[in-house]
Amino acid sequence: MTSRPGRPRRGRVALHLFLAVVALLWLLPVAWAVYTSFRPYADTAARGYVSAPGALTLANYANAWTDAELPRFFLNTALVVIPAVVLVLVLASMVAFGISRLSGRLNLALLIVFAAGSLLPPQVLVIPLFRLFLALPLPAPLSDNGLLYDQLAGLVVINVAFQLGFCTFVLSNYLRTVPGELVEAAVIDGASLLRALWAVVVPISRPAIAALAALQTTWIYNDYLWGLVLMRTGDKRPITSALNGLRGEYFTDTNLLAAASILVALPTLVVFLVARRQLRRGLTLGAVRG
Length: 290
Fold this sequence. Notes:
CATH topology of the largest domain: MetI-like fold
Order of helices and strands: HHHHHHHHHHHHH
Helix content: over 70%
Number of strands: 0
Oligomer: single chain
Strand content: under 5%
CATH superfamily of the largest domain: MetI-like
């Protein structure tokens, strides 16, 4: 029995309509935040948030940039994101390379361990990690209080620890598709396994590594929990946690907060636009080869 010719076309139309509705629902809060960020607080207080604007201005963006001292917190975030992404990709590449060369059963067992670790909710570990950071010492060049707590280096460590399992899981599955003969040929030519990894395997895995780099940059940049729990000094916090400082005890300028949130979201948008081709290629190659 053959299906009618109109069914596939109706199915595609229904799918596109569903995706369009989901996209609109996803973009609606962002569009509302952008709309609110252009309105003075006095205008929304007089007319209400669900109303036509009486005036539109860029003053909220200027005030958010200067009054909230966003450049300082962007620098704090860069000092966390860049080392964390580099470290997690380097360590994940080395661990995934070792796991990919193991036998099937041991390979599977280790992958299950890494996958289980990456699925563990970080909220359940807040109290033990908080006490651990208060007890761990850190040398003077990296800490001004002698502890791992309240230091940007501590945020680097915690983000690497929580992201390493996911990156290892993804890269190990991808590296299994790399022909073992290439590594064996490099070893026969006199290269060590570490040299074979960086000279042979990593260049082949560049699309997957680039995709993970884009994802990790976005995830670590957007982290809110650890910057709030493991940092005490407000001037040291990363940008997402620092936004909490714009909330007053009795009054919060939501228009100013919306403008600051849009400014904070721009770097991740830039990362996605720059790396979208590598991201799409890396994820597609992983799906096809896996």
